[in-house]
Write a sequence for this structure.
């Protein structure tokens, strides 16, 4: 059963290879999309090659809607976008994939039904197909090698959809199960090292001891330590002290 998440329909127009349909399904589900529509697949439907390639996304193929023509596939949609890498002699807004999915998210949030068209592998969508669309989605590819594989184009567009509808941090560090060390744990670690280094005669000469301790404290505060890191650093210092004492 399709998820209840509001999303665009991805319409594969006259796809030629079952493997590419399966790969497209997998790409869609990677980013939480499961509304696939198929228009006149060349090798018929269902297609065993598609099922094998879809891996864990086979449900999308089972639930894919099949249409004999594009008019039927987009008949219930209020806004249609057509992906193409070639320039066309058709006057329409041309969106980047990022902006296209911004527009899609806005329109869907307003209650509209949006479809994104993907053409067959050999040459992409025909002008007759694109004439039914409200806008074009153009990927900024290498002009000397502009052809994108069907599943690649689906993956790229699905990724942009995910970026527009989910919080995607630009950078993230997972502290693991231990979690980040708090200020008290860092303070105890700093004190442990200060005391041990003081005993070892590290803070020399005495006139520089205070500034050396400040620099050491500053070092600890700059380091993003987890609780597990702090425990390990305590253990390292304890072992070094024990080793020195055995040597004495």
């Amino acid at each position: 059963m399709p998820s209840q998440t509001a999303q665009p329909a991805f319409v594969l127009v006259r796809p030629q290879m079952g493997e590419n349909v399966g790969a497209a399904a997998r790409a869609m589900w990677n980013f939480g999309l499961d509304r696939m529509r198929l228009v006149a697949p060349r090798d018929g439907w269902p297609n065993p090659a598609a099922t094998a390639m879809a891996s864990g996304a086979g449900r999308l193929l089972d639930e894919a809607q099949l249409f004999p023509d594009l008019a039927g596939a987009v008949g219930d949609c209020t806004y249609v976008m057509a992906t193409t890498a070639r320039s066309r002699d058709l006057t329409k807004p041309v969106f980047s994939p990022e902006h296209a999915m911004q527009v899609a998210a806005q329109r869907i949030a307003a209650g509209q039904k949006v479809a994104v068209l993907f053409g067959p592998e050999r040459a992409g969508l025909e002008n007759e197909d694109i004439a039914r669309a409200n806008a074009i989605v153009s990927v900024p590819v290498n002009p000397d090698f502009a052809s994108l594989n069907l599943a690649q184009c689906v993956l790229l567009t699905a990724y942009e959809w995910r970026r527009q509808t989910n919080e995607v941090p630009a950078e993230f560090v997972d502290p693991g199960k231990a979690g980040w060390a708090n200020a008290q744990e860092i303070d105890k670690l700093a004190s442990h090292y200060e005391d041990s280094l003081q005993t070892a005669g590290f803070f020399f000469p005495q006139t520089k001891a205070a500034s050396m301790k400040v620099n050491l404290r500053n070092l600890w505060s700059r380091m993003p330590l987890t609780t597990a890191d702090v425990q390990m650093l305590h253990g390292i210092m304890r072992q070094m002290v024990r080793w020195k004492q055995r040597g004495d």
